[in-house]
Each structure stands twice: as C-alpha cells, then as structure tokens.
C-alpha cells in the first residue's frame, strides 16, 4: 500500500479505543484508553492512558464475538490485581468489559461492545502483561434451570 492509498482510506479524525472494566466489588471502574500519552476524557469520564494491544471482535462471522486485549502490567497491573482480590463469592457478578471506539467525537462512541470476561483464561497475568479475553457469554447465566412458575409447572398444585 502506498502513501496515497493509505491516506485516502484512513480517516483523518482522531481515534480513541476505550476499555472499561467494572465489577460491583471494585472501588471504581478501570477506565483505560489505548496507546495514548496523557489522560483523555471520553463520554464525560477520564480514561487513563495505557499501552495495549487489542484484537477486536470479528463483526462478519456468525461465531461468538471475542475480544482479546493485553496491556502493560507495569502501568496498571498492581492496581488491577488489588481490585480483583476484592472479588469473592459474596459478590457473584461477572466481570464486565466495555470496549468502545470513539472516532472524531469524544462524547459518543462509534462502536460499543458490552462483554464479559470468560471463565477459561479470562484474565491472565504474566511478568510483563495482563491479558483479558472477553465474550458475550455471561458466565452467571450458564447452567441455570428454569424458574419455577406454578402456572407452567402445574404438577405440584395437587399436593
């Protein structure tokens, strides 16, 4: 691809990739913006800069969307790990991950994905990075039987 084709196809508008990680046990949600040098206000909230690599969900396939992101452990890893330790069985809620792309407008995102950290290898810590795999599958809704409704399950009304 030559320079002429690149600049003809690439939007000249500023582009921001925002990640918000939240859980009821956290003191406050983690708001990160990818590959910026200073804090950025997106959607009225201040996002911290973090160097990260993002593999966006595939929008063309029929499969389940999956977001894979990895950010530097040196920048926010310690704070993130301390907040994760606050999650226990008393707060049975999934770890929510919101990925948004802001294109030119810092108030309204162009694309937003609301995802959940997956159970298997959802969050992984290495010496240099924190990796998160998120899908649309809410782990709290798996293996849940139907709610008992006497109008539907009439067998117990005779007892």
Automatic annotation (TrEMBL):
This is DUF1833 domain-containing protein. Pfam families: DUF1833. InterPro entries: DUF1833.
